[in-house]
Amino acid sequence: MAKGKNSEGRAPTQRQLRVAELIRRRLSEMLQRGDVHDPDLARMSITVGEVRCSPDLRVATAYVLPLGGGQQEECLEALHNNRHEIRREVSKALSIKFAPEIRFKIDDTFDRMDATRRMLNDPHVRQDLDN
């Protein structure tokens, strides 16, 4: 594939993984300590499950989930409203040329795991697995 083309479908590079993990750790620290000056975020416990970076490291997508799974829309709205402050604070922890734009999405990993568990416990599927 030519340089500069979209590499969607490829595994992330070591650099993408390293930067994503640095962003995830910094976001987790900020949200845990209440470094973001927003009362809505301060009263929420938010888990940062994963961060994925684009190949050019200009965009980072953080998958978050409020503790207990409730208030998802309020959580996303509060994070979106404070994205500039969050980006500034995260960029202080990184040593890259450009601070990535941080986008937030709800982490649905646990929902997918529950759906898979329910599917595997279905009697018809169990019958196929036992054979």
Fraction in beta strands: 15-25%
The amount of helix comes to 40-55%
Strand order of the largest sheet: 1-2-3
Structural class: alpha+beta
Cα Rg: 18 Å
Distance between the termini: 44 Å
Residue windows where pLDDT falls under 50 for at least 5 positions: 1-6
**What's the total count of β strands?**
3
The helix/strand series, from N terminus to C terminus, equals: HHEEHHEHH
Give the count of helical stretches: 6
Biggest sheet details: 3 strands, mixed
Give the integer mean of the pLDDT values: 84
Shape: flat
Oligomer type = single chain
Describe this structure in words.
- It is built from 6 helices and 3 strands.
- It has helices at 14-33, 39-42, 72-81, 83-93, 109-121, 123-130; strands at residues 46-53, 59-66, 101-106.
- The chain has a 3-stranded mixed β-sheet, with helices on one face.
- Helix 1 packs across helix 4.
- Mean pLDDT is 84; it is low at 1-6.
Which SSEs are present, and which pair or pack?
Elements (H helix, E strand, L loop, with lengths): L13 H20 L5 H4 L3 E8 L5 E8 L5 H10 L1 H11 L7 E6 L2 H13 L1 H8 L1
Helix pairs in contact: 1-4
Question: What can be said about this structure in brief?
Answer:
With 131 residues, the protein is α+β, with helices and mostly antiparallel strands. It has helices at residues 14-33, 39-42, 72-81, 83-93, 109-121, 123-130, and strands spanning 46-53, 59-66, 101-106.
